[in-house]
Each structure stands twice: as structure tokens, then as C-alpha cells.
# Entry
Amino acid sequence: MDGEQHSLKRRLLLQGLAAGALAGGAPLVVAAQEKVLRIGYQKFNTLNILKGTGKLEQALQPKGWSVKWFEFAAGPQLTEALNANAIDFGHAADTPSVFANASGVNAVYLGAEQPYPKGIAIFVAQDSPIRTVKDLKAKKVATGRGWNVQFLLLKALEEAGLSYNDIEPVYVTNAADVRAAFQSGNVDAATLWDPFLAGQEISTRPRILRDGTGLSNNRTFHLAVPKFVDQNKDIVRTLFAELKKANNWTQAHPQETADLLAPQLGVDAKVLKLATERRNYTTVAVDAGIVAEQQQIADAFLKLGLIKGAVRVQDKVYPDVLV
# Structure
């Protein structure tokens, strides 16, 4: 009798659990099989554009996958999320990727965007007495640790015969803080990247001292948790296939892209159009030349003591080409 009572109680318990799951809209079996691709993105980048189209969700639905998107203020925060296994895939600029490599972030390079040198710049106010990068000696410059524009600043100073130690860097953590410091007059110059740079150009008409042309290719890299890629190569291939379609459309339709993303981002369409028009949208595999670019960045920051350990970029590139 005790055995029968135990069996009955067990059946009732299981039935109760199943009923509860059904009432919640998701059977236990389905919940266990749910597959979610978690993507980190930043404002106005290729992944952001793909998010706006909804095409990736459509492509993955027949495979039983859904997509969750997470916005980050800048690359360093996104790479930390990769390291914490809070996301599976994301993008960051060249310098944040190198800093992530140096700090041991568990992520691999899967693909790279085309050079975007005009999407980064060092600038001053229109009425500033500072006319050239050389005039930045002993001046305060707003930038961020491990940002793509920090590398531009380093290279521009070298080009002008100065060193990074010749300026007073004022470190901030996001683009809004750069704008606040610049517009308050608390710094003499500032560094930004698109679309924040484009927004600054339109709103205050600053004098651009130097953009990345000839100094920094300012590439965006697509990064992922290696274990996720090992287990889901077909999903990653689908992601890149949809990204390619979105990039091709964006390249041919800058105004439509701006109009699509403006309400989503809360950024003026004029700002997004300016940023779109000076960028090439194509994702490529990480080849030897791109590895060499990244290695140059790693070596430069190691020499300055801004990263503590040597980085061998090639070791961070995923062995299979999935782009």
C-alpha cells in the first residue's frame, strides 16, 4: 500500500509540474530544447543593422533557434560579457579586441569589417587655438582606455613627433562622457568614433585635427566564445550569411539605413547618414594582413606599458573560416 501511495504521489507531482509548465506557455520538453543565440552589439554597427532587419531571426527559426540582443556602450564592456559567457557572439573595434586578448578574455576572432579610417577622429572646438596635433603637447585630451581612438591618438602623436606621455589623457568610460568633458571645456581636445563622432560634427562643428586615414584602419572584429563556435558552426555560418545580405543592402542604401535605425537608436537620421556614407560594409575572413595590423596595435600598447603582457594575435584567430 505504501508503495502504491508513493507511486500515486509521484504521478500526481509530475502531472502538476507538466500542467504548470503548460499554463506558463512552455512545455518542459520544449524549454529544455530551447536554443538561443545571444548577440552583443554597439550603436550603429553591422550587427545593429542586422538586428534592425529581423532577417537573422527568420533564418534561424526553422533551425529551432531564437536570438537575444544585448546593447553595450563600448567594446571593453562587450568583451567582458563574452568573457563572462553572458553572450555568445559580438563585435568590437581593433584596439578593444587587443586589450581583450591581453587580459585573457575567452574569445576568438571570426571575421573583420573593412577599414573605416574616417569613422574615428581627434578634434578641438572651432575657436580653439590648437591648430595641429603637435599643439596638443601638455594639453588635456579626453579618450578611453583600450578604445580604437586611443590607438589613433597614439599614432597621431608619433606622426607629429610627440609621444603619448607628452599629453595629459583624461580617461572616460563612454562616448557621452567624452562629449560632456569636451562641451564643458574641461579638456582641450577629444576623441570619438562614429556615430558619436558624426553627431559631434553635426551639433558643434568641431575642427578635426586628424582622422584615421593612413594611421589606423579602425576595423570592427566579430568575436565569439570558442566553445560556442565549436558546437554551433552552422549557426555561425547562417549569422554571417545574413550579415552579408544586410551589409550589401546598407552599402547601396545609406539613407534608408539611417531611416531604419534612427528610431531604434534614438539618433538623428542625419547623423547616421553621415556615418554610413563614409564606411564600407563588408565582412571578410581574418587573413595574415589583418592579423599583422592587430599585432602592430598589441605591440604598440605593450611598448607603452598600457597592456602588461605580450599578445600573439594569430593564436586568437579561430582555425576555421566561417565567413
About this structure: The first helix runs from residue 2 to 23.
